[in-house]
Amino acid sequence: MRKVYKGPTEALAGLLRDNMMIMCGGFGLCGIPDELIDAVQASGVKGLTIVSNNAGIDGVGLGKLLETRQVAKMISSYVGENKEFARQYLGGELEIEFNPQGTLAERIRAGGAGIPAFFTKTGFGTKVAEGKETRQFDGEDYVMERGLFADLAIVHAHTGDTEGNLRYRMTARNFNPMMATAAKVTVAQVEHLVQPGEIDPDTIHTPGIFVKRIIAVNTGEKRIEQRTTRKRNDATPAAAAGGGTH
Amino acid sequence: MRKVYKGPTEALAGLLRDNMMIMCGGFGLCGIPDELIDAVQASGVKGLTIVSNNAGIDGVGLGKLLETRQVAKMISSYVGENKEFARQYLGGELEIEFNPQGTLAERIRAGGAGIPAFFTKTGFGTKVAEGKETRQFDGEDYVMERGLFADLAIVHAHTGDTEGNLRYRMTARNFNPMMATAAKVTVAQVEHLVQPGEIDPDTIHTPGIFVKRIIAVNTGEKRIEQRTTRKRNDATPAAAAGGGTH
Amino acid sequence: MAWTREQMAARAAKELEDGFYVNLGIGIPTLVSNYIPEGMSVQLQSENGMLGMGPFPYEGEEDPDLINAGKQTITALPTTSYFSSADSFGMIRGGHINLSILGAMQVAQNGDLANWMIPGKMVKGMGGAMDLVAGVKRVVVVMEHVARNKDGTESAKLLKECDLPLTGTHVVDLVITDLGVFTIDKKGDGGMTLIELADGVTEDEIRAKTEGEYKVELK
Amino acid sequence: MAWTREQMAARAAKELEDGFYVNLGIGIPTLVSNYIPEGMSVQLQSENGMLGMGPFPYEGEEDPDLINAGKQTITALPTTSYFSSADSFGMIRGGHINLSILGAMQVAQNGDLANWMIPGKMVKGMGGAMDLVAGVKRVVVVMEHVARNKDGTESAKLLKECDLPLTGTHVVDLVITDLGVFTIDKKGDGGMTLIELADGVTEDEIRAKTEGEYKVELK
């Protein structure tokens, strides 16, 4: 039980300082550690570098940290769903480092797995490769990318046990598992906090070793960024919902 | 159902040829695709390069392919549990490339994930690094290792559905999930073949995209390499079983 | 005349094969899922971490934990599996996806693609586009043949060289526009080839609206 | 006099701390698990893909799917999780394991370690040893102070430089032998220091049996 904390403020106590790097799980608003983000905002720490695929929307998720100007730099793949972000970015108040989504995911995975650098085809010949080492392997061109390791990772899971073992739900998994491995300290918020042994050990996504502190949260009504539906009488074929590629 | 084959011979039909590279899942005798190995043996293909953490024992698992001298080279981390292996190796009939176990696992994972090369601390300053590029990142020394991608991977899973989605059991998971991603064709043998939807999609270890062919096997009595037990009246503390590091 | 968005999607659907794993981009590519032939098994990948994407949910059944890469609510199928974004892009970069269908701002005759930023405008980022074009075996672009500018003029989108920042180099295999279909020999020196005309479209019209060089081998 | 294997294991167990994740090698290191203090939470990692290793099974309850890195049948605990070997070594190489306790053939005064091959003898491979010593935060070696040769002579194992092929360079933090305990400043220039003597062992005996240079700072 030594990993279980009462709430988000307690779970982040002693871990926050100005100018630190924080990884924040989630894709869009799906699987974001909303209560932990709120606690970071309440702490008032500034100059943060945030590693997150997206930057939330106005007033929700990381959008909150932008409103209070606590973020100095974002390392992301797709942003600008909120006006405050665009305002700060265009005004030069906020730095952004764009990473292809897969490169971002792999950099985080590498950081957590003791891989300081790796090669990928992604971005060769584009702005993303500028200033980076490139190299041929077996006649194909690749770019060298570096691992990422943060001071703190905050993640959201569906179920967690008091040992820190985590299980995610559906596409709310996204960046959370890699981020949990890639920081000096990882704090998890979970919708269901259970006892060790209650999660089938073959189905644990994040072993407890990666999670230093854990809290139970009541997520209430989770936010949906783009509510898309079909009518009851719609005979859309089974595979009819499109994917999205920005 | 187009992925489901009747038996190991049918599942490997058209896939085998001399001098090919085959990845073979399992750690020791745990989680090895035994029936698929038997079918490779029966096919008589020769000059094989086998990527497998271990090389089986006399008459079991990859030990069978050694007996029939179908293997030209092993890429492994720990071998020699069988006499036939030692005889061929010392006699110069069998080539072996030793990889640190984690480097082997990561090379396979990289091969499947489109990463042609990565850096690792493991083996720096040792025989393993000889002839390889080394390099400093942030003051630490690393060795560059290459991704591995095979012609064929054969894996064993506990449960699979007709779409090729796989779930492994306990430590029989080991090298199977990475190998399933790192070959032109992956063939899986499963103890329980079920319909799509019967495996909770949050708990699938290998998505079906990686598995081209699948068979149901009756493993009967699985072999145990080292049977270690305690007496009923033994008051050994909970964490008393040792790990092993070769 | 020319093809409608729906007709372009229907043409793109002809690139599907039984057993394919496919990633569809936003816009017209999304419509392709409506034209998967009955009885053909095509599994859609969503790069945030899902294989086997189902249709939009019925009203009231939206699940905030189940979204696609466009952040839209979707549903699962019996074939569905979920995985992390790292595993998802391992799948993409590792060449396991058979086909990606996506939109574009510009395509060059050598297969270069630009579809993520316009200098001087707010840059939102490339998301997964660079990984998809670099990693997926076959890349099909579906786009309008020309760009309509604010001043009423038109600009070619099929070019000798892209002038917008690239998403990838030598990546596009096939371009489907409202006027016709082009193949591109992206890794070789075979260049671009016009292989189909849309209904009622002439070779002359295409020539007038295409800056890039191409051969004509109509099927 | 000197310490027995059990006493060496008990001494090594003093390096454990509450909440530690630990990887134990074959031989004496395995015995360390018998000396985990009551009430202390120590989770054992098995590098084939398991965290939270339990004791050997009762006779008749062996499960072929549940083995440790020594390929012995074991059991699970309520805290157990399973993962792939790639994830397991990501955990190891990424520095997430607090402590590794393993055996050795030779240790040099700069922290170099040799424990995987003897030239001229059948080489079985390094298994996970190179990854463990490179990746785990703190590496403790437990070994006999000297090697007993077939001809009855003894050879030093704590050396100026290892002459056997290395498992890792600058990797060992602490060496526990049957004669005493040494610290090694593996990344700095502090060298090797004798900090404890086994019961009844003299500094002179250790000096006679140690080739490597060391300071003495007995606690």
Automatic annotation (TrEMBL), chains A, B:
E.C. no: 2.8.3.5
GO molecular function annotation: succinyl-CoA:3-oxo-acid CoA-transferase activity
First-level EC class: transferase
Pfam families documented for this protein: CoA_trans (PF01144)
InterPro entries in the cross-refs: 3-oxoacid_CoA-transf_A, CoA_trans_fam_I, NagB/RpiA_transferase-like
Biased amino acid composition, Basic and acidic residues: 222-234
Keywords tagged on the record: Transferase
Region (Disordered): 222-246
Entry-linked NCBIfam families: pcaI_scoA_fam
Official protein name in the record: 3-oxoacid CoA-transferase subunit A
Organism listed in the record: Methylobacterium persicinum
Automatic annotation (TrEMBL), chains C, D:
InterPro entries, per the entry: 3-oxoacid_CoA-transf_B, CoA_trans_fam_I, NagB/RpiA_transferase-like
Enzyme class: transferase
Chain coiled-coil ranges: none
Superkingdom of the organism of origin: Bacteria
SMART domains: CoA_trans
Pfam families found in the cross-reference section: CoA_trans
GO MF annotation list: succinyl-CoA:3-oxo-acid CoA-transferase activity
Keywords: Transferase
NCBIfam families: pcaJ_scoB_fam
Protein name, entry field: 3-oxoacid CoA-transferase subunit B
The species this protein was found in: Methylobacterium persicinum
